[in-house]
Structures are given as structure tokens and as C-alpha cells.
Amino acid sequence: LQQAQTTRPESTQIQPQPGFCIKTNSSEGKVFINICHSSSIPPPADVTEEELLQMLEEDQAGFRIPMSLGEPHAELDAKQRFLAGARDHHRQGGP
């Protein structure tokens, strides 16, 4: 058990390209989600809408959208007020 806790999965660092930001609110305050992109993250499988619907109906885990999520972190907004959190989300392709 101790070895499983200290073993880190293989990873690759990437430098994402800016995309866009989603602003929303939670009960704790404002939340910003930064959407970035990188050609280093492979695209999802190219399937038709019918194939995707069939996979989702069959509850198959075979279809996934590759992504990388950064740790939530506190930031200040333009008025220097604390934000509930910010998260960086990287996906393949452009915005």
C-alpha cells in the first residue's frame, strides 16, 4: 500500500497554448476555468454521432476525450477580491 501511494504515474510536461476562459459562480464565489490547447495531447477517436450514441448507451469506457487538469488554485480578481478557485484545463486542438 505504501509503495502504491508513493509511485507516480508516468507523465509528460507540456506548455499549453492559450484558448479561452469560462467564468461561473458557485456558493463559495466566482470560479474561472481556463481552457488551453496543445498538439501534445492526442485528439479523441474519430467516430460518427451514431457510433458515439451507441457507445454511450452501452456504457462503454472505450471513448474518452484526452485532457489534462491542473490543480485548483486561489487567485484575485480585477478588484483584488479572492476567487473561489481557478483550474487550468488543457485539451488537444485549437479553441
Task: Describe, in short, the structure shown.
Residues 2-80 form the PIH1 N-terminal domain. The chain contains two helices and four strands. With 95 residues, the protein is α+β, with helices and mostly antiparallel strands.
Features:
95 residues, alpha+beta, 2 helices, extended
Strand order of the largest sheet: 1-2-4-3
In DSSP terms (H or I, runs of 4 or more residues), the helix count works out at 2
> What gyration radius follows from the Cα positions, in whole Å?
17 Å
**What's the count of strands?**
4
Query: Taking all residues together, what is the mean pLDDT?
Result: 73
SSE order, one letter for each helix or strand: HEEHEE
> How many domain modules?
1
Poorly predicted segments: none
Gap from first CA to last CA: 41 Å
Family: Belongs to the PIH1 family.
InterPro entries: PIH1/Kintoun_subfamily, PIH1_N
Pfam families: PIH1
Protein name: PIH1D1 isoform 2
Notes on the protein architecture:
The protein has 95 residues and is an alpha+beta fold. The chain has one domain (23-91). Helices cover 15% and strands 31% of the residues. The protein is built from two helices and four strands. It has helices at 2-6, 49-57, and strands at 17-26, 29-37, 67-69, 85-91. A four-stranded mixed β-sheet has the order 1-2-4-3, with no helix packed on it. Strand 1 (17-26) and strand 2 form a beta hairpin. It starts with a helix and ends with a strand. The model has no long low-confidence stretch (mean pLDDT 73).
